[in-house]
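Inputs:
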Amino acid sequence: MSVTVRDQPGVLVRIAALFARRGYNIESLSVAQTHEPGMSRTTFVVTGEDATIEQMQKQLQKLIDVLKVIDHSEGPYVDRELMLIKVAVRGPEERVEMRQIAQDFRARIVDVAREALTFEVTGDEAKTDAFIEQMRAFGVLDLIRTGRVALPRTAPRAGANGTGAADDRSNSRPRAA
Amino acid sequence: MNGAAAVLKALERQGVTTVFGHPGGAIMPIYDALYDSPIRHVLVRHEQAGAHAADAFYRASGRVGVCFATSGPGATNLVTGLATAYMDSSAVVAVTGNVPLSLIGTDAFQEADVTGVTLPVTKHNYLVKDVRDLPRVIAEAFHIARTGRPGPVLIDIPKDIQQAPFDGSFEVEVDLPGYRPTVVGNARQIRRAADAIQAAKRPVLMVGGGAQSAPEEVAAFARATGMPVITTLMGIGAFPAGEPQSLGMPGMHGTVTSNRAISHCDLIVGAGLRFDDRVTGKLSRFAPTATIVHIDIDPAEISKLVRAHVPVVGDLRDVLPRLTELLGSLDLADWWAQLDGWKAAYPERYKTDKPLVSQEVIALLARETGGDCIVTTEVGQHQMFAARLFPTNRARSWISSGGLGTMGFGLPAAVGAAFARPGETVVCVAGDGSIQMNVQELATIYKHQLPIVIAITNNGMLGMVRQWQEMFHAQRYSEVYLADSNPDFAKLAEAYGIEGHNVFDRETAARLVPEALARKKPVLLNFVVYESEKVFPMVPAGAGVDEMIIGDQEPDGDVAAPAVEVRS
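Outputs:
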């Protein structure tokens, strides 16, 4: 779900307090400014019954500083997550193997040290999960994920080719956006 | 001009004439500016009372109630009042002082995170950080408070902002792109609602607090359709209780007829209500055979608890007349035969075989006023008795804490109502427990010689808790006994300069009630009543509305005195 808000002090607190108060479970949450001055966008992932999600949308809409609420699961959307992951390196063979895996995942190495490599992985949640699994054998030292961000896909024009999805599974998992 | 003067100027521009409040360090610049302002300030003796008075001022008049408090404890004392107003959708603007901006966040003397504390109990709140924002913030606050689903808004103003020079303009546009309440109902939905109603054989109209601003529209709809009308605790007076079409209150302590109607109807038009748990009882047993048409201005209330088959989002003042226009008359003769049967079988009744009982005192007040007064209540048994026996015939005249159930509401609410509608008699129905929660307001009532009759039905107990302990906790009466340490309420009133009487028998009651009402000044009547009276009928918590306990089931209730029947 994405929520566009006016950049007012305390707006994030209002959203968080609403979730806590009404007992909504949030799996991830990310916030940043948009291209329009004075506006921010919050994306969060939430699971729940249809009625709960509907109620949540309505409650969010009631907040004065909330401009727009989008439930991405209602249509096609693209979502991404960014992860930084630091993995232990014990020898040159491991280093080569890790680089190979990174290439397969289109992950970038953003920090190189004698005992560790740090990768930047972008993709949907399944991809970041899979990358973590691959790296577990080497020893994950630290990691951070941004949580998912999402945008609805642009509706295809009549006669246009496909839905515009290039490299990605169009996501239609229930209630995840 | 400084910020403080700008605040008062902006309030004046909003049409504010009366403010309830209590001064303190961080709001002194505003109180200084008040000295030169035409706005009347009513000094309450506790900030909570100020918030309740402002709340009741709105409920009685439809004009936004305003209260002032200082920082820290002053502001936190408002919290119960704001929460009460929030739950009952009452338009209140609270202005609090705070420590200077440079001290905010340093745990300064009398500092509290007031916007943080009040966030979940206000419709919106503001911390003003620039003196130039004051006119805009105040205009927005009033707009938010009174439009859409009304609610309280708090404005927290640091002391240095109040003292800062102000030379800005008061001509401000309210521009809130995220706040656009839906006032006009969707035509297609109204059409669907009309079709559903037209097809119904056993419909009921159920109105709540939202209907207090649309009594004419409710009456016109009821007249045109001939539908029975149920008024929730918050909707009392929105349709006259004395009308034959009225079935009274639904829910936990509702009338048998209302609850039977809910269980047997095939359609409910819920207008300006939120299907609170005290109304619905167990949800799966609520109106199982009914199509639900739900009209409310707050889309979040629709299908929150009771699934609406036909939702209509909008203001009742818009939706109801348009709906009425689409409806032909309904043939409800069979339905009314059934309803009238229930009404006849289950009239309001209580036994007077004991010393004075609460119900007869409240019925006496109803009889002597004809229901043409403002009634405020505290919370407890007396509140339920009053809802049943002393409903008002006019909208905005029944003022009671419904959603939050705030003991200590009724007395300060009487103050607010008396200022909102000067000249009208206000009756505050109270219990001996709850009256003590804001009893200091006797001082405010004395000072302004407000025409308030305070009727305490004093059973020496926290009666509602006692009732539950008797019925559901094996008569283990835990911490409900007050009689051994209650004050002499008549003397207490006298100590405040208010006429007070302790009343022990029905003859004295019958004499003193009309006298007190005729005084047009404050009178406290302390009726010492039977201690073990219970409120019936009752739907036990968690049961369905079809599972009412109808009669008096107290263990010692085998006395054979005839029950008194009351015309409502």
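Remarks. Chain A has two domains: 2-70, 78-149. Helices of chain A lie at 11-22, 50-62, 92-104, 125-136.
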